[in-house]
Structure formats: structure tokens, C-alpha cells
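User: Once you have settled down, look closely at the record that follows, taking as long as you need, and be ready to discuss the fold:
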Amino acid sequence: MITEGEPFSEGDPVKVSVRGRFILGSLLAAVVLAGFLGASTTVQGHPYHLQISNEILADPNAVDFDAWFAQSIRPASSFFVSRVSLFVNDTGVSDPLTVSIRADVSGDPAAGDLAVGSADGPATAGWLDVDLSPYVELLENTTYWIVARSTASPGQGYDWWDSGSPFAYPAGNGAGSSDGINWGSMGVDFSFRVYGFLQPSLSFSAIASSPDVQAGGFVTFTVNLTNTGTGSAAAIWVNVTLPPELTYVSDDAANAGGVRKGASKFTFTNVAPGVRTFNLTATPTTGVANGTITVTAFNFVGTDHNGATLIRATRNLSVTVFDSGPGPPGAVAWGWLILIAVLAGGAVLFVVLWRRRKSEVTIDDVFVGDSGGVLLARSSPLAIPLQDSDMFVGMLQAVQDFVRDSFKTGTGEEMRSLEFGERTVLIERGTDHFIAVVYRGHARAPLLRRVRALSAEIDAKFGEVLRHWDGSVDAVEGIAALLPKLATP
């Protein structure tokens, strides 16, 4: 049974905000991007959907240690096979019947099993369900074989009913063997039912109606749940964590089949192929300081058709709160106050975290983040906790977004660097990523060339992955192996 709000706990905090004035402690708390807590509870799905069958019954055929029988099948569309049912009865001492799926080799069953299972059938004739493992995908327009075998002596095994005709199942035919290796045609089709399921392919996105909102106004977040696979997902959970500076107003998730639990936790079940979209509207909380940057986190968990966790992803959206209309002269002033505070806090943080080095250009740290401010890779000689790296990348993205929104020139300009004391943060943006290099020294031009070359290589090797990135760590782990190239002049 799928329960509402799985798999998030009530204590899942992702409260992120950057105020115009704050001390270092509040800065660190403001930009920490929290993830999921604990593992998800597996949802019980239904993998047994009838895919192919031939239920015409005629005559029994004895299955025993020297009498194997098989029936070929040819799926019209691909699916994962989970169960085979045969019309049989146990003719002797109670014992199991083994059933497997095999590939086709020159019109006969292959020697090895793709999936196999066994069950002890009744003494009366009927359909015997045999669950198979592992779940193997049977491809469309490809021939496979259902193979039945028993270790019982003659007369003590099973009877499997054929259909009395080679035309009962036109896409296949029956075969017999004394050893499971050498096969001959039976001239009739056997009765069978084949069950299975289709799998989904999930991706998620979230956008804000505006990068800023006036006090007393509203901002609407639009969430898209996309299934491009051929099967349905048992469940998708969405946990929307609003920062304290924004207050929930309403949502229309019910129109997309969602069930809300608490303020902003949503459950969608039986998510068929296609796109489901819903909106969540919020308003600035009373008393929020002018120029406050808020970050709302959207945490997603999607399951496969049978309820096993398939994908996790996080999307973070920043929205700036203004006392009056977005973009007045005061907004720029607030922007400078925020930048000064961020840089002051950052300076203290880096003095603590990074050591001095003696070379003309010393690279203290390298971060790679995606366009939403999620850490993709990091290279550093220091054992700095992962959450600090996540925090730094999220802070950089928030500052870049705010500066871009505050100084709207229409030229596509981006913030390229930050300086504090003898350290500089060099920022280079790629198509769907950015690189932040913390260094000391004055040979900026050679370093910039290396950073741009690295960014181009990331675009070339991971551009397509990042363009459709679903949050999978395995898909981007290769980026970290490219970072040492910055140390080579």
C-alpha cells in the first residue's frame, strides 16, 4: 500500500535564505541545502500483468526427467517477464515443476536460462503460476522459449496440456527434447500465460513564475513530473520545502492526481507515461527584510513500476523579496549590502578552511556545480566536509542569480570573479554547469585558459547528461576525474 508523504519524514528541513544583513553563523545556516533523510519505504507494486497467452486446451504431455517440452513466444512489444502459468497437473508424488525462459538459437531453445522459477502443482489439472527471477526484459519481435522440466521418473512428473493444433498460437510452436539440448518440433502449440510489466523513465523540473516578488504579492512554482518510459511508476513523492521567508498559500496538485500531506508534501500514484504538472503558490512572510533571497527546495523520489526506488533528485529555486516593485534603485543598494555580507562571511570561512601555498598561482579548491547550484564535483587537498562544499556552491549560485537579476543590462553578462584579501574565486560558466576555482596569485590569464578548456571538455563529455540530469550521482562522477587537469600549466 502506498502511504501519503512517503518517504519524507516530518523533520525534512531545507530552509535556505540569505538576508541583507547577517553574521557568519547565520550565513552558514542560510545556505546549507539539506537532502533526504533516511531510505524510502518500498511500495508493494503489481508486476503480474498478462502480456501473451494461448489458453486453448487439448491433450496432456508427460513432463519428466527425460521428457522436456518447450513453447516459443514472440512478444509484440517489449516487457519485463515476471511469471509464467502453465495448464498442468502433478501426476505422481508431490514435486516441483521447473519453468524457465530461454533465448532462441537457430529455431530451438538455447542451453541456458534467462529467468527461472519452480512451483509445486496440485494433483488436479489447472493453471500453475510460476514466478520467475530475475526480471528479464523480453524484446519486441524477438523469439524466446518457455521450457518446462521435471526431475521425476516417468509417470511421476507433470502433464502439460497442448492445444491440439500448430495454429493455436501462430507466432510460435511447440518442441520436445529428452535432455534439454537437442530439440524437435511437436507440431502443436502448448497452452501458456506469460505475465510481466513495463518500466517508467522519470525526470523532474520546477520553475518559479518570477525571480522576485513584492511584499504582499505572490510567487507560483510550477512542477513537472515527466514519464517518458513505456510503463507507469508506482509512486512519485514531491517534498516542497519553503524557507521561513515564504508562506504557503495554495496548490492545485489534486488536479494532477496528487495527494497533499501537511503543508507541502505530495504523493502521486500510478504515474502513467506523459507529463503531470501542478502549481504551488506562496507569499512573502510578514516582516521579511527588503532584498532577502529565498531558496525553495523541491525534493523528488520516483519509483519503478513495482515500487522500488528508481530516482532521487533535488531542484532549488531562488526568489528575491522586495518591499516595492522588483528592480528599483534600492534593490541594487540592497544587492551590494548582500554581496558585502556574503564576501565578508566567505573571507572568514576561507581563512579557516584553506592553507597558504608558495607557488605564483596556488589553487586551493575547485568546485563544479550545475545550473541550479547543486554540487557535481570537487577537488581539494583539504578534508572539508561534503556539506560545506554543497553550501559553498549553493551560495555562489545564489549570489550570481541575485547580481544578474539586480543589474539587468540585457547583454547576458555574468559575474566572473569574487575577491577577498589575497584569494580570488574565478567563475566560468558552461552550458549547464559552472566552475568555481579558489586560488592565490596573479597569473590569471593562464589559469583562465585552463579553466575554459576544462569547461569545454565537461560540455563535450557530459553536456547531454547535464542537460537532462535527474540527480543521479553515477551519471556525473566522471567529472571529478577531469579536475586535476587545472594543476597542469
